[in-house]
Specification:
It catalyses: 5-carboxyamino-1-(5-phospho-D-ribosyl)imidazole + H(+) = 5-amino-1-(5-phospho-D-ribosyl)imidazole-4-carboxylate. Keywords: Isomerase, Lyase, Purine biosynthesis. It is a single chain. By secondary structure, this protein is an alpha/beta fold. The protein has a single domain, classed as 3-Layer(aba) Sandwich (Rossmann fold). The chain has six helices and six strands; from the N terminus they run ββαβαβαβαβαα. The longest helix has 26 residues. Bound molecules: 5-O-phosphono-beta-D-ribofuranose.
């Protein structure tokens, strides 16, 4: 699966397999909702290592500003990509059926000093998308306003639920 928005993508969402897409789709959805140009592509550390290297090395030059990388099991993709680009990389541990994602989490989160991956929770692709938006929002006041609006909407939702509890 490959997805690319019309204008130059700012966020690259990559995943080790198309079987990761049901999880990673939440990151893609967030980027769509915030109107952030993005692309989504399967790039495997183990099955397409050459493509992974090319993707990581060319990402900044192509205009990408953040990479969201999801993988499951022996989840080497986010760390390997982070070792070949200075763009911020957000890692999403994708849960597989056997170890519930603990293997994915530990594979992604324990990076050696010097090569950071901002790891979200197991299956936390939604937060990965929001974090990517926040990174871009740091230098984009208009996007930051939309992020503030989103947070205000969450607070409102909680209060609506409280009102329903009190009714
Ligand atoms: C990882 O292996 C992928 O990220 C995926 O989570 C896992 C299993 O891949 P498939 O065998 O379903 O293609 O590299």
């Amino acid at each position: 699966m490959t997805e690319r928005t019309a204008s130059t993508p700012l966020v690259g969402v990559i995943m080790g397999s198309d079987s990761d897409y049901p999880v990673m789709a939440e990151a893609v959805q967030v980027l769509r909702d915030f109107g952030i140009p993005h692309e989504a592509e399967v790039v495997s550390a183990h099955r397409t290592p050459g493509k992974m290297m090319e993707y990581a090395r060319e990402a900044a030059g192509r205009g990408l500003r953040v990479i969201v990388a999801g993988a499951g099991g022996a989840a080497h993709l986010p760390g390997m990509v982070a070792s070949m680009t200075s763009l911020p990389v957000i890692g999403v541990p994708v849960p597989l059926s056997r170890l519930d994602g603990l293997d994915s989490l530990l594979s992604i989160v324990q990076m050696p000093g010097g090569i950071p991956v901002a790891t979200v929770s197991i299956g936390g692709a939604k937060n990965a998308g929001i974090l990517a938006a926040r990174i871009l929002g740091a230098s984009d006041p208009e996007l930051r306003e939309r992020l503030d609006g989103y947070a205000a909407g969450l607070a409102e939702m909680v209060e609506e639920k409280n009102a329903a509890l009190r009714a």
